[in-house]
Amino acid sequence: MKQIAFLINPHKKEELASYVSWVLKQCAAHQITVFDREWPFALEGFEEVWVMGGDGTFNYFVNRYPTCSLPIGLFKGGTGNDFYWKLFGDCSREAHLASILAGVRGRFDAGQVNEMLFLNGVGIGIEGEVLRSMEAIRYIKGGLGYYLAAIPALFRFKHYRISGLPVFLCMVFNSSRAGGGFHFFPMASIEDGELDMMVCEPLPVWKRLFYMPIIQSGKHVGLPFLRFSRISQQTISCDRLLRAQVDGEVLESNTFEFRVLPAKFDFIKSI
After folding, report:
1. Sequence-ordered strand ranges (E) for the chain
2. Does the N terminus or the C terminus of the chain have fewer Cβ atoms within 10 A?
3. Neighbours of 248 (CB within 10 A)
4. Considering the entire predicted model, what is its pTM?
């Protein structure tokens, strides 16, 4: 009988209650301790940890337990579920649970920006403004909610400068997508020991709107106003204080120091 800590996003415990009950019923052979109010100070005494929530919950987990060496099983329960998708794709609940119970694992990279860990990625500038707008429409899940939040930001956001060069957007990612299905880095791997970086030059509003669905589909990689590179470490200095979104959480700074953390966490993945 395996000793498992099951950590639930406390802000969504009522919304996720039926899903949690279903999981527990299917996994009666294991000793599962549910934490849906306060998470434990440490994970000692457990052989495995399961986490239910969205990208923000998973971000909270890796920052609360940055030295976790246990196998980690992620359960979808958020707005975007983008890192979950990288591990499991668009599978059914039943297929996902079968993968969790099979316990096929991999050592996957994480990233760090300043003192904060991340699994998906970081968007500096307009991404932080989009995140602020999304707080008002969290009940609209996935790409639609991202669209509704992004369109006003596309109109009003002004470019900034990195090392003297004007840019509209700078993103550094470990994984492939954010915003509930925007494939910003379709080529990204979470096992290559590198982070992917994209810089976008300033664009008129009509281009911002026109290319938004193209970026969502991941067909933007060859566009002439975008520059892609791979990094293991990078410092980005901006000409003003900016909001960045970090796996759906906000970080404010004018300097962002990035580094990759190769094979940082032991995640259970799809069979």
Report:
1. 3-8, 31-35, 48-53, 72-76, 105-113, 116-118, 121-125, 160-162, 165-167, 169-173, 195-200, 226-231, 233-246, 249-268
2. N
3. 22
4. 0.90
Distance CA(242)–CA(256), nearest Å, equals 10
Q: What is the DSSP letter of 11?
A: G
DSSP code, position 43 = -
Q: Decide: 265 and 112 in contact? Cβ < 8 Å.
A: no
Q: List, for residues 3-37, the tens digit of each pLDDT value.
A: 999 999 999 999 999 999 999 999 999 999 999 99
Backbone angles phi, psi at 75, to 5 degrees: -120, 130
d(CA 42, CA 64): 9
**Residue type for 28, please?**
A
Q: How far apart are CA 267 and CA 73, in angstroms?
A: 6
40 φ/ψ angles, rounded to the nearest 5 degrees:
-65, 155
